[in-house]
Design goal:
The structure is a homodimer of 481-residue chains. With 481 residues, the first copy, chain A, is of the alpha/beta class. Chain A folds into three domains: 64 residues, Winged helix-like DNA-binding domain superfamily/Winged helix DNA-binding domain (Arc Repressor Mutant, subunit A); 132 residues, Aspartate Aminotransferase, domain 1 (Alpha-Beta Complex), CATH 3.90.1150; 236 residues, Type I PLP-dependent aspartate aminotransferase-like (Major domain) (Aspartate Aminotransferase, domain 2, 3-Layer(aba) Sandwich), CATH 3.40.640. In chain A, 41% of the residues lie in helices and 13% in strands. The first copy, chain A, has 15 helices and 16 strands. In chain A, the strands form four sheets. Chain A has an eight-stranded mixed beta sheet with strand order 4-11-10-9-8-5-6-7, with helices on both faces. Chain A has a four-stranded antiparallel beta sheet with strand order 12-13-16-15, with helices on one face. In chain A, strands 1-2 form a two-stranded antiparallel sheet. In chain A, helix 10 links the parallel strand 8 and strand 9. In chain A, helix 1 packs across helix 3, helix 6 packs across helix 12 and helix 13 packs parallel to helix 15. The longest helix of chain A is centred in the last third of the chain and has 27 residues. The first copy, chain A, is globular. At the A-B interface, helix 1, helix 3, helix 4, helix 5 and helix 6 of A face helix 1, helix 3, helix 4, helix 5 and helix 6 of B.
Amino acid sequence: MFLELDGQGPQYAQLTRAIKAAILGGRLVAGARLPPTRALARDLDISRITVLAAYEQLRAEGFIEGRVGSGSYVTAIEHKPAPRHPARTIAAPSRYARRARAVQDRTIGLLHHGLRYDLQYGNPQVHPALNDLWARELARAATYTGQSGSRAQGLLALRQQICDYLARRRGVQAQPEDVLIVSGTQQAFALTARVLLDEGDRVVLEEPSYFGARQAFAAHGARLVPVRTDDEGLVCAELPRQTPRLIYVTPSHQFPSGSVLSLPRRLELLRYANTHRCWVMEDDYDSEFRYDSRPLTAMRSLDSSDRVIYVGTFSKVMFGALRLAYMVVPTALRDDFITAKYLGDFFCPMIEQAALAHFMESSGFERHLRHATKELKARRETVIQGLHRHAGDRVEIADSQAGMHVVVWLRGYNRARTEALIAYAHERGLGLYPMAPHYSKAPARQGLILGYCGLSSTGLNEAMQLFGYCLDALDGGAGSR
Amino acid sequence: MFLELDGQGPQYAQLTRAIKAAILGGRLVAGARLPPTRALARDLDISRITVLAAYEQLRAEGFIEGRVGSGSYVTAIEHKPAPRHPARTIAAPSRYARRARAVQDRTIGLLHHGLRYDLQYGNPQVHPALNDLWARELARAATYTGQSGSRAQGLLALRQQICDYLARRRGVQAQPEDVLIVSGTQQAFALTARVLLDEGDRVVLEEPSYFGARQAFAAHGARLVPVRTDDEGLVCAELPRQTPRLIYVTPSHQFPSGSVLSLPRRLELLRYANTHRCWVMEDDYDSEFRYDSRPLTAMRSLDSSDRVIYVGTFSKVMFGALRLAYMVVPTALRDDFITAKYLGDFFCPMIEQAALAHFMESSGFERHLRHATKELKARRETVIQGLHRHAGDRVEIADSQAGMHVVVWLRGYNRARTEALIAYAHERGLGLYPMAPHYSKAPARQGLILGYCGLSSTGLNEAMQLFGYCLDALDGGAGSR
C-alpha cells in the first residue's frame, strides 16, 4: 500500500489523513484489510506506536473496524464522490451580501502607504504612555469573573461611568438603563439598521457624510436620502417631505466638513423628527476634542420627545484597537436594541469593559483626555499656521476649532486638478485625502481633509511647507523638485 | 429670575442647564436680557466665574448673544414646543425587531439563582490560575499598536495559530486567509444569516438544537426546518426534499443531546449539501473536551466541495467574558464574510487577539487545555458514578464521553412530572435544567441537562446524592426533607 505522509503536524495525524484519503479516494475499498501495524511501521520507517495511534483514531471516527491483533478492516461506508459543483459559481449570496459587495466596491479615497507625511484622518493619536496605563488596567481587570445580570447591555459599572461623563461633559442626563455598550460606532449603525429599518426605508444622511454609516445603512437595504450641509450643518429646510425612518447627523462636528449644527437647526431638526415621527441618530464621534470653548451640549439634551439615539465612542479618544462605544437609546427602543445586541454577539468583552470603567472612575481617563486635547490643539495650530504661511489664499480653511482634522477648500480647483495635486504630492511623500468621495454626487467645490493625528508638530510643519510647494507646482511654478 | 440648580455635576453646567430650560420652556423669551453676571452670582450665592462660564457656554451654543459688559440677550430662535407624541406608542420597530421580540419571549429553561448546587450548562469552568496567565498576556499585548492591513479578518498571527491548532487537533487543513476572527459563536450565526439568507429561506436545524443559533436564524427571518436526531446525530434520511440554504449541525457533540454524528451520516450530509447546493455550518463548540480518545476529525476535513463553514470558539475553553471565536469559511464566501464583519463592527479588539495569539504560540493555551480537560474528566466521572449510585435505572445516561454536560433521560416521566421534579429539586437547593425547551415540538421523552462546570467534584457528588433523593421523593417516597 502506497501512503505518502504530508509532513504537517504529528506523524500519527499525517498517517491518519493519508489512510483516510486512500479510503475516500477509493484506493482502499470497504472490507479491505489494513496492513498489520508492525509491518506498516517498518514500511514507512515510523514507530509502531504512531501506527497504533492512527488506527485508533480511524476506528474512533468509523473509517475502520476490528481490533488490533485480529486485523483492521475498512468499514462499509456508503461513499460515492458526489459530482463536484465548484461552490464559487453556484450559490448566489443573499441580497444583503450583494448590496454589501456594492458598497464595498466604492473606494473611499485612496490610501497612501509608507509616505513620510501622511495626513490620514480617522485614526486616533498614538500615546505610548496610554499603552502602559492600559496594560495596568487590563491586568487589574483580568480577574473579572462576574457572570450574572444582563450582560448584553454592558457592564453596569461602565454604564454608570458613562452617565457621569455625559452629564459632566455633554449635558446629557442619562440613566445606566438607557445606555447600551457596543463594539464601536460601526456596530451602533448596524444595530440601528436592524432595529429600525426594513428594506426600502428612507434614511436621511448629511451630504457629505460619514462613509461607515452610509455603508451600513446601504448594505441593510435602506434608501439613502442625502441632504445638503452648509456652515451651520444640515440644511433642515431641505429635509424631505416623504417621511424618513431615520436621520443620521454629526451635529457637534459634521463629518467630514467640520461645520457645527447651529442651535436653531438643532431645534428645527427635533421639531421635524417629532412632527414626522422619525428617529434621529446623533453621532458624537469626536466631540471630546474642542479647542475654543467647552464642547457643545449634545442634541440628546434638547430632545424632550425621546427621539434621539446618541452614540459616543472610546476608539477615537483612546486607540482604534479598542472596540468600545456606547449608545443612549430612547426608552421606546431600549429593549429592542438590547435584544438585537444579544442576538448579534451576546455582549462586549467584559475585561475591557471592567478596565475602562476603572480607568474612568480613577480619573485616568479625564487626565488622558486633557493631555490628548492639549497635544491635538498644538498640532492643529501648527497646521493652521502652516496653511496661512504656505498655502495663503489658495485655500479656504474650514476651521471648526474641533476634532482631529482640518478641511481646506481648494480655490479654483476642479476634480481633475485636485487629483493631479494629490498624485503630485504623493510622489513627493505627502499623503493628501480628497473630500469628493464623501459626497453622493459630484460636489460643487473641491476640498482636502488634513488629518493631524499621525504626525508630530514638526512633521506637520514640514508637511504644510511641502503642501505649499505642491500648490505652487500645480500653479505652473516649481516643476519637479 | 427664578432658577433652580439641580445639583448634578459642576455648578456652571447646572446653571447652563437651568437657563436653557427657562429658554426652551418659554419663561425667557427671545430678546430678553439676562441678569448681569455679578447680580446673578449674588442672587444664587455662587461665584461670578461660574456665571461667566455658564454664559460663555450658552453663547457658544447659540442660546444667548451679546458680549459680557454690554449685556446678554436671549437669541431669537424659532422654538415652538412640538405637539408631543410619546415615542413608545408610535414608531413600530422593523420586521427584524418584531421577530427578535418573538424569539426572545420564548424562555430557554428557567435559571436558578443562588442555589447551592446549580447544574447550569453552557458556562465554562472557572480557572483562577488562568486569570493570572491572562492578565500577563493582556499586559504584554497592550503595547499592540499595529494598524494596517485587513483588520476586519482578524489579526494574522492569531489566524496562523488557529490554523496550526486546527491541523494538530481537528484534522482541518486551513490557511490563514480562510479564517475569520469573530466576536463569539453568536456573531458567526448572525454573519452567516446576513451573508447567506434572505427572509423566508430555509434553514435545517437539529431537533433538539442550540437556542443561540435558532434565535439568530429566526430573528433574521429564516424558515426553520427541524430534522430529528438520534444516537448517531442528525437523521440525514429525513433531510427535506425542498432545498434549504443552510444546514446547521453540531457534529462532534450534538447540542444538547450529546450524540456524535457518525461517519456514514457525515458523508451522507456532505453528499446532500453538494447535490442540493446548500451550505453546512459545523459548530464545533466544545470538541476540545473529549475524554475517551482523541477528538473526532471535523466534518470540514471531509469536505471536498468546500461547502462547510466551520466554527470554533475560545469562550468555552477559556472564559465566557472573552468574546473570540473563529470561522473557517469556504473560498466562495470568504470576501462576503469579511465584508459583513467589516460593515457590522469593523473588527474584533486587537489587544485580546494579540494576547491570545501569544498564549497559543507560547503553548500556554495547550497546557491550559490539558489541565481543563483533566479536571472536567474527573468531574464527569463523579457525575456518572453518582448517577449510577443514586439514580440507578430511573435514568438513562446519554454518555458521549465529551463536553461539559451529561444528558439523562428520565424513565417514565412526562412533562408535568419533570417540571414537578425540577421544582422540588429547586426548593432543596439543586438547580436542574430540562431538555424540552430545546425542541421545537414537544419531545417524545423527557430529559435533563446536567452541567458539571460550575461545581467541584465534592459538590457534584453531593448534588447527585440530592438528585437521587429528589427522584425518590417524586416516586412517592421520602416526602419533604
